[in-house]
Write a structure and sequence with these properties.
Oligomer: single chain
Largest sheet: none
Shape: extended
Distance between the termini: 44 Å
Order of helices and strands: HHH
Number of helices: 3
Length: 76
């Protein structure tokens, strides 16, 4: 029998609870929440940059894509 979406959700909840319990036991909970807060700040800052400077964002993405294309083509 194939696993259902509910079983996947239950498994993910169990994993989340196990990780949370392990963090509580190891004393890393505070560091986890601090890292999570910094990650949210970084996402917010990058969203603001993209909103304020869309041209530079598109130009930078095009440059990175061009360089990636050159590197991939060079290997073949």
């Amino acid at each position: 029998m194939e696993p259902t979406m509910d079983s996947y959700k239950a498994n993910l909840e169990n994993i989340k609870d196990n990780v949370k319990d392990e963090l509580d036991r190891s004393g890393l909970t505070d560091r986890y929440y601090a890292a999570q807060a910094k990650a949210r700040e970084a996402v917010d800052a990058s969203e603001e940059f993209v909103k304020d400077h869309p041209f530079y964002t598109i130009l930078g993405a095009a440059a990175i894509g061009f360089l990636a294309g050159v590197l991939v083509r060079r290997r073949h």
